[in-house]
Structures are given as structure tokens and as C-alpha cells.
Amino acid sequence: MRRFVPVIVVALLATVPLWLGDPYILNAFITTGIFTIAAMSLNLLLGYTGQLSLGHVAFFGIGAYVSALTALGFDVELFDGFHVVHEPWPVIYGFILAIVIAGLCGYLVGKLSFRVRGAYFVIVTISFAEVVRLVALNWVELTQGPLALTNIPPVTLGLPGIGYANLYGKTGNYYLVLGVGVIAYVVIKHLVQSRIGRAMIALKENESLALSVGINVTRYLVLAAIVSAAIAGAAGSLYAHYLRIIDPDIFLFLYTVTMVIMVITGGKGTLAGPVVGGALFGAIPVIVRSFAAPEVQWILYGAFMIAIIFVLPQGIVPAIERWFAPRPSKKQLVASQSSVSAE
């Protein structure tokens, strides 16, 4: 039965635009879905390898800028008299490039930083995110700096000879985000349930033991960083083409904190954890906004998150799994006690 739960959830989510008439709530679904995809990518590092990246928003922002600039085009002077001119490309190319370049940046950061652990790795990731933010802020000729990139074209879907459709509306963007989220979930699921995923989990549980049995620590950590960054880049691309405007604030530390909250509250190291955490992140502000003043909303939101961590330190999904796990029968308990006594 458990194997059909994701299919049922996706089927239910697919019906949301059919009965939800409030565009504000549908917009909340879309933005929450985008950040849930980013949280799923962070969970691959934090939940399955035990590496906390507090600069994960850098890959999200890189994906957004790469995709936007690919679709808009640019003319940049790198040296005296040497210009790089790029004509606008279709949005789908920008989406693919966002995944590739974010993945390459993940490889670079992984290669440089996975030689260290703990606080050093956290510092490296935060520093990388800050450097990328400063580049986006100060390279005005390319990124427009604080003036922001505007008029980013929406995602265009279609086939030659049949026609193309621009996803200006919320319904089309909702299904696009849902589709990318499902693909990201399937990719992560297949990865963590493979031999590679088991090696990653072994590194998290006991790195010394994993080394002793021949697991190449750096190789698997770098692979996790590449896949994680690529998925975050895809989420950033969706974000840019949905909002159609981005500025250096996309690299704010707040967005990384948002992803970490989704992972921790939902349950790190579980496939459904970031999804459940993302659903909470999207639903609570909408509910609280209906009856609380703006100053009180963040207090209530923070208090609720603290309460979840205090009551369910392992996260919501692990707690639910424990509640519904089959309990051993009296016969099994007696047999287990007998075997312990015999030993």
C-alpha cells in the first residue's frame, strides 16, 4: 500500500487547479512547489550524506540567472574591445543550461570543500553563496545588478508543426512545477535506493567504517553535490520564468533557511520529508495571514516550527512512520525475550 501513496498524492495534486478558484492560493502552491523542489535537493546532501550546506541558495540563484540570461540574451565586454554577444534562445535551452551549470558549480564546490568536514564545509558553502551574490550585484552590465533582470519570458511548451504555448497563467505553471517536482522525486528516489545511495547513507552513519570497507568518500559526496545542485538549479529556473523578474536578493540567506526548515520539520533523510515540510511552509502563512496582523504572523510561524522540532525532533514523516509501523505480537515479544535470556 505504501508504494501507492506517492501516486495517490500526485493524482490529488493534479486536480487542484480544477476545483481551486482562488488565484492567490494557487500562486502559493506554485511558489511552495518550487521551494519544495529546492528543499528536496538539499535533503540529498543534508539527509543522506549528513553534510549541511548553508549556501545551497547559490545553486538556486545560479539556475535562475543562467536560465533568464539564456532566454533574454546579453552583450558583455569582458576585455577592452572583446565582447561576448549572446542572442536570445528558447526557454527550454535556458532550463537545460541552468541544470548543467548549477551541476558543474556543485562539482566545483564539492571538489574544493569535501576535503574538509563540519564547520569548515559550512563556511565554504556560505562563502560561495556570498561570492555569487556579490557577482550578481556588481556585474551590472550582465545582471543589471540591483535594477534586476526584467521581462523574463515565460516557459514555452510545444512541438514543431503542432504549435507552442506560453505558460503565462498560473494553471500552466502549476502543472509545470508539479511535473518537475515528480521528476526530481523519482531521480532522488532511484539514487538513494541504489548502491550509490546506500554508500551515501553509510558515510553519514559511520564514515570511518565506510572508509574501511573501501567506499570512496569524496567521490560519493561530490556526486551528491552535483545532483543536489542540478536539481536546485532547475528550481531556480522555474522561479525566474514564473516571476519573470529576478535580482541579487534571490541569494539571500533567508531562502537557504527556508529550505533547511522544510527538510528538518518534514524529516531529513526521508523522501517525503521535504514534501511534507514544504506543504507546511506553504500552508501556515496562508492560514495565519487570514486572522493575524503582519507583525504577529512571523511570531506564530516561528513558534509553530519550534513546537514541531520540540515535539517531533526527528521530523513529521519519521514520527508518522513510527505511529503506523506494525507492532510486534505478544508471541514475538515472548520469543525475543526468551532468546535474550538464552544468550
Summarize the structure in words.
The protein is mainly α and about 350 residues long. It has one domain. The protein is about 70% helix and about 5% strand. It contains 16 helices and six strands. The chain has helices spanning about 5-15, 15-20, 25-45, 55-70, 90-115, 120-140, 140-145, 170-190, 195-205, 205-210, 215-245, 255-265, 275-290, 295-310, 315-325, 330-340; strands at about 75-80, 80-85, 150, 155-160, 165, 245. The strands form three sheets. The chain has a two-stranded antiparallel sheet. A two-stranded antiparallel sheet has the order 3-6. A hairpin with a 2-residue loop joins strand 1 (about 75-80) and strand 2 (about 80-85). The radius of gyration is 22 Å and the shape is globular. The model has no long low-confidence stretch (mean pLDDT about 85).
